[in-house]
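Anyone able to model this chain together with zinc ion?
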Amino acid sequence: MRAMVFDGKLTCVDDYAVPSLSGDQALLRIRRAGICNTDLELVKGYMNYRGILGHEFVAEVVDGPAEWLGKRVVGEINVADGTCDLCARGIPSQCRGRTTVGMDRHPGAFADYLALTARNLHVVPDEVSDDAATFVEPLAAALQVTELTPITPSSRVIVIGAGKLGLLIAQVLKLTGADLAVVVRRDRPRSLLDQWGIPAVTLEELPAEHAQIVVDVTGSAEGFESALQLVEPRGTIVLKSTYVGLPQADLTRVVVKEVNVVGSRCGPFDAALRLLGQGLIDTQSMIDARYSIEDGLEAMEHSARPGALKVLLTF
Ligand SMILES: [Zn+2]
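re: yes, here you go
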């Protein structure tokens, strides 16, 4: 099968072995996949991952449990052991024995086929297109901000970092009715935010210490520093991006301002599918380009361009 593989060097091959199934796994034929910033980090060495990349996808079940055959599905990326204390507490995404699709000891979705436990699958309703369904995983991650931090129409919220994930978070937060602004540097995200009726601002336009909640999607020390400036005393900073390296941060100010710092990772797929089914999230405007899996290297290069939004792989 065709696959985009990282083994210290990124290559696209056409002779990778189709995975064989074990346990309750389903064989998924990938229909479409999306490139995430995490994929770009993995090929720079993040997680020391080796194998097929890719964790944003929509697929069709072609083998495995009979009740899943022929279904169009998306799949959660954390493969839990189902036996540890965190699994017992209903937090399989933090399972102590988990592997992660396309990121940590589990093959990914930038390939014709992927074997994945049926427990992780969700059926995609007809009203959600293949394009939109490739956004389920990052949209679920965006929704996790509201799962872990209460945000109401009276909340003053700022999002820093208007890339792929930041723009999904902005759309999700708009649905809460909160008093929302998004810090932007580029014209493209500014025009998308305008289109969605979400205020786009520059850092200089914002008063210091005035936001109850700041969501930092930059993954940079500068982003966290800005968040620390903007958040009011006893406010909350939500960290919504893995950081490149180990950034320096002024933790004394976290102490003095009594700031809550909340990490947030994977989120609810069912809710993401429902929002997409209801047309509440605009994914189409966020698609920059499509490439066939055979041109995967070109697709990764495109995705790495400054300001690039979603690049999709077709099969
Ligand atoms: Zn577990």
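The mean pLDDT is 96.
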